[in-house]
UniProtKB/TrEMBL annotation:
Main localization category: membrane
Gene Ontology terms: cellular component: plasma membrane
Name of protein: Immune-related
Domain of life of the source: Eukaryota
Membrane topology: Single-pass type II membrane protein
Amino acid sequence: MDAIYENSAYIRSRADASRRSSQSKGQAKAAPCKRTKVLLIVLCVSVVLVFGGLCLLGVLYSNFLHEMSQDMNNTNYEMELEALKTQNKETLRKLNRLNESTGCAVCAVNWIHFGGKCYYFSTVKMNWTRSRDHCVTLGGHLVIINNNAEQDFLTSNVKITHWIGLNDIDIEGRWVWVNNQPLNDSIEFWIKRENGVREPDNWTKDHPAGEDCASLGHPAGETDFWTDAFCFKEKRFVCEAPASV
């Protein structure tokens, strides 16, 4: 009988040992699984951070390229402007050599000679500022009108309104030419209407900035006199340069 009890106790102890061994193995297996999950979570977070960093770098690089492109465009414009100025100086130099050999005053192609000056009547329309700058690239400036003869010459060569080199952009009512000389009140050709209304009237109904740039005539077609107009309007223009002698 004692032998049977001893065998039963032995069997239970073996069973208990087997369960403990199984539990230890299960815990040992569970531990690597938890570590794997933690590593996967860390890896996913790292991937997200890396991807976010790459996106940020992409945005910064795109902005850098955009700024570089703008700088290159500005540089190209300045280079083209300088090239035009250089070309114009070379043209004037050749004209001067021609004049020295012929004794005649001449103007560049498409310019008209009058009173010792050359005048260019544009065939394209620009706003006042671009017209002023374009005349400079051609070696001149927007026309400055000094007397009745010059006014008559200009009006006889235009059929629609043209920009001239007169403005009051800086100080309202103080009209100056593009050479910064103030308008001589004894030599002005503003429109004077029969109803008593005259130019310049700084019309602000269509735009609060008012009319700060002068032109020969107005869109209605009359070109014998001056009007003030919105500087952003696009018109033809007249350039002036000294004749080569």
